[in-house]
Every structure is written in structure tokens, then in C-alpha cells.
Amino acid sequence: MTGDNDKRRQARSEFIYKRRTLAMIGLSVGVSTNTIGRWKRAALAAGDNWETARAAHMIAGEGLDAVITTVVEEFMIMAQSAIDDLKADGLKERADQLPIDKRIMMMTSLADAMTKMTASAGKLAPKISELGVAQDVIQRLMVFVRDNYPEHAQILLQISAPFSDHLVEAYA
Questions:
Q1: pLDDT for res 129
Q2: Got the DSSP string for 99-125?
Q3: Which domain holds residue 116?
Q4: 119 and 148 share a domain?
Q5: How far separated are the first and last CA of the chain, in Å rounded?
Q6: In this structure, are 149 and 109 located in the same domain?
Q7: Over the range 39-69, which residues count as b (16 or more CB within 10 Å of their CB) and which as e?
Q8: b/e sequence 110-131, b meaning 16+ C-beta within 10 Å
């Protein structure tokens, strides 16, 4: 039984501190993924929420901004994958495609989720949002100068690169 307790502690540690998946932990500890899941559920029933401990460790170790950045990056990767799947579906024979109303509903749902995700991230991590706005302003200024004052575009380009680095330092 002591061996199981040691494995359980190791599994909890790898889940919380190394952020490994249950499958990876199972391989490392030498038990099945189902066993790890059972230990995790039993711990939760006993008041030890591994998910909460993992999130708290991430926030304490990396800071909330880093956690939010990671979550937003992962979400955007998944969103891009969903968009790619929808594009691939559009290339299929018409009979094999999802109905157009279903595809539109999926795109609308994805757009809504992206809007909510970015709004939430901006509220939780205002520095990330501020940096995004600052970078957007610089980009808009460059387009404006290029279109309206092309003779000054080269100077602005020379200034904008180091200034962008300065913005990252100021807002990151």
C-alpha cells in the first residue's frame, strides 16, 4: 500500500507542478490512466482538488498574465484548427459537406467564443490588452503615414522597430 501512496503522491506532483497529462503521468508512474483518474476523483472527494492546486501553482509561479497568455494562445490554436476543419469541409463533395446552416452556426459560435475569450483576457490581464492596443496604434500609424505621407515612411520605419521593443518592455 505504501507503494501506491508513493505513486499517488508522485502522480499528484506531476499533475500540479509539471502540468503533465494523465496519460503521461500514467506512463511515468507505471499505472493506467484510469487509475490516475480514479486517484484524482478520490482526492477531490476528500477535498484535494488537483485542478485548483495546479492553477494556483501556475498563477503563483508564472503570474496570472502568463497563464492567461497561455490560455489565449491555446484557444487561438484550437480556433484555427476549427477554421481549418470548416475550410476542409467546404472542399468536400456537396453531398458530404455539413449543411450550410450548420457551418454558419459553427462559424458564428466560434466568432462569439473568440470575442468572449479576448474580452475576458483583456479584463483579467489588462497589460496584455494594453500592449495589443499599443501595437495596433503603431501599426495604424505606419499605414497612415505610408498612405498619406510616404516621404516620411522610411523614418517612421526606423523609429517604429525600437519603439515597439520599448512598448513590450513597458506593457509586458
A1: 63
A2: PHHHHHHHHHHHHHHHHHHHHHHHHH-
A3: 63-124
A4: no
A5: 48
A6: no
A7: bbeebeeeeeebeeebeeebeeeeeebebbb
A8: eeeeeeebbeebbeebeebbeb
And the C-alpha cell for 93? Answer: 463533395
- Pair (163, 138) in one structural domain: yes
- Considering the domain architecture, whether residues 137 and 117 belong to the same structural domain is answered as no
Structural domains counted in the chain = 3
Place 172 in a pLDDT band, splitting at 50, 70 and 90. Answer: low
- Specify the pTM: 0.43
Both 113 and 68 in one domain: the answer is: yes
Say which amino acid occupies 5. Answer: N
148 and 160 belong to one structural domain: yes
Let me know whether 31 and 55 are in one domain.
Answer: yes
Q: State how far the Cα of 56 lies from the Cα of 58, in Å rounded to an integer.
A: 5
50 with 14: CB under 8 angstroms? no
Is pLDDT larger for residue 116 or for residue 123? Answer: 116
Please give the Cα distance from 113 to 134 (Å, whole number). 24
Cell 517612421: give the residue.
156
Each residue's pLDDT tens digit, 30-69: 999 999 999 999 999 998 888 888 877 777 666 667 777 7
Mean per-residue pLDDT, 90-118? 87
